[in-house]
Amino acid sequence: MNIPRTPRRATARVSLAAALVVAAGACGGADAGSGDGGGDGLSGTIRVDGSSTVAPLSTAAAQLFQQRNPGVRITVGTSGTGGGFEKFCNGETEIADASRPITAEEQARCAEKGVGYEELRIANDGLSVVVSKDNDFVDCLTVEQLRRIWEPGSRIDNWNQVDPGFPDVELELFGPGTDSGTFDYFTQAVNGEEGASRTDYSPSEDDNVTVQGVSGSRGGLGYFGLSYYEENKDRLKLLRIDGGNGCVAPTGTTVQNGTYRPLSRPLLIYPSAAALDRKEVEAFVEYYVENNAGIARAAQFVPLSSAQEAELRQDLTRLREQHSP
Amino acid sequence: MIPTAVTSDPPEIPRLKGRGTPLREQFFRLSLWASLAIGVVFLAGLLTYVVVEGWPRLNPKLWTNFPDIIDPSNAGAQSAITGTIWVISFTALYCLPTGVLTAIYLEEYADRDRWWNRVVEINIQNLAAVPSIVYGILGLGVISRGLGFGQTVLTAALTLSLLVLPIVIISSREAIRAVPQSIRQASLSLGATQWQTIWRQVLPAAVPGMATGSILALSRAIGEAAPLLLLGGLTFITFNPTGVHSQFTVLPIQIFNWISQSRAEFTALASAAIVVLLVILLVMNSLAIWLRNHFTRRW
């Protein structure tokens, strides 16, 4: 585990205990119906909802799985990580997509409703901080500089206030809206508190708008998931970030091994324990895990490192033993 | 407030135009044209833009295929198109009768001196101004969870019904009010009961206005994404609804999802889906115009 604020083992243990409680207590509210196709003819409905960052991964997995198992219906929604957990803990979905680990508050909510779950890390995501191609004076920012720009109440509106060495160019800020998991993650990593951000920037739930804004303004600065940079390489300049150990550019390797700090994060799925007892859900999660690298590449994310991959396989093996339908 | 005499021909309009037009009048007319042009030019610009953007994807795959995140060239919006049709049909089924009956009560039966009728009236006016996302919250809390209908076509249709109900009621009331009082009086004086008067005289005369208003209300419902996103309208679904208890997605949500994808092919796909949505809208609106022209009565 390289990602700092992810007490993953602990979470997994808690969830395991919860899973056992649920498994022992009841047969689960699998109201979506798990037909007994028998043999390979799996059927049933699997509802996935949550982070819009993880949705492309789950969608790709769902699509590939459905091609092999036409009887299984998988739907993917994008209520956001928080909204996804809300529905998940309410028993309205089988799998929650999340771009951050479940919070203590959400854990309590799930426990209250008797919803147990497993946590699986299925890919990595890096946030990219970008400026316009016309910007020829910035190449690297320290986390401290980012914080001074983005902290609540920040009055910085010119690049020369960020660093006296920068020219007199007006600073124009773009970023995701407050409902976004990316916003939560960036504010947590940079400002130290989730949701703490200056508010006088141009927010948009559509990252393509941020791309447009930054590329059209010499003094523009914005942030979003790495895949948006990959798609718009010709219009944007990627900044290196100094998290204390020198400037590091986000690449597959630095995001995987966590040296691109603090702006790389895990992407997670949370299947519910009750749902895992259903054949089709277990088969889908297995498929998702076993093909994680291909799915991550298809959805343009950074695949797991070999250590993370090994950990995921181990989790899957444990899951298989726990939930043999 | 309502003309009391039935005239066969509209009165001759006096000619106000004199010789030559003063400069001021020309300027006024010019500014009218300019105002009109703003709306029309922007609409034409938007239409051209989406058609040009979506042109490469305006092929049958758009309505024969399901969403495909791996290969955008193979993706289609069939589940969103059928979902839209399902949801909007049931919205019409729920909100039209309710709205029209409410309008009849308020116009023909309600005693305006009673406080409860005034409360109902003020409420309806206010409801028409409530943002759509609030109806989404209501739908999620009350219909989806409270009544236990879940994230289904039924929940979506009921929520959208609530959303456009005030519009249906207000436009139906206007249509009923536009029926001359003399028609009612004539019918009543010939011995018809109040019910017979409403059913045989007032309603047939009000149908064109009610139809126009209702279809404009449904046109608004068809373009809503925000409340349905909240209700759990899905962004990836590869089957069509099979009943009111099916899960669903609608075109605005599908478009929203495709536009926010990072790959440019999806933007073209979104434009193509916008064209489909516009075509559905135009068909509905032409139906409204046809109904109006077909049933309009002149007094």
Describe this structure in words.
The complex is a heterodimer of chains A (325) and B (299). Chain A is 41% helix and 19% strand. With 325 residues, chain A is of the alpha/beta class. In chain A, the strands form two sheets. In chain A, strands 1, 2, 3, 4, 6, 7, 8, 9 and 12 form a nine-stranded mixed β-sheet that branches. The longest helix of chain A has 18 residues, at 8-25. The two termini of chain A are 30 Å apart. With 299 residues, chain B is mainly alpha-helical. Chain B has a single domain (57-295), classed as Orthogonal Bundle (MetI-like fold), CATH 1.10.3720. Helices cover 69% and strands 0% of the residues of chain B. Classes of the chains: A alpha/beta (325), B mainly alpha (299).
Q: State the oligomer.
A: heterodimer
Q: Compute the number of helices of chain A.
A: 14
Helix content of chain B: 55-70%
In the CATH hierarchy, the architecture of the largest domain in chain A is 3-Layer(aba) Sandwich
Supply the CATH class of chain B. Mainly Alpha
- Helix segment count of chain B? 11
Percent in helix of chain A: 40-55%
Structural class of chain A: alpha/beta
Number of discrete domains of chain B? 1
Family (chain A): Belongs to the PstS family.
Protein name (chain A): Phosphate-binding protein
Signal peptide (chain A): 1-32
Function (chain A): Involved in the system for phosphate transport across the cytoplasmic membrane.
Task: Give a summary of the structure in a few sentences.
Chain B: The chain crosses the membrane at residues 27-52, 85-106, 127-147, 153-171, 268-291. Chain A has 325 residues and is α/β, with parallel strands linked by helices. Chain A is 41% helix and 19% strand.
What labels describe this entry?
heterodimer, A: 325 residues, D-Maltodextrin-Binding Protein, domain 2, 2 domains, nine-stranded mixed β-sheet, three-stranded mixed β-sheet, B: 299 residues, mainly alpha, MetI-like fold, 11 helices, transport (chain A), Phosphate-binding protein (chain A), phosphate ion binding (chain A)
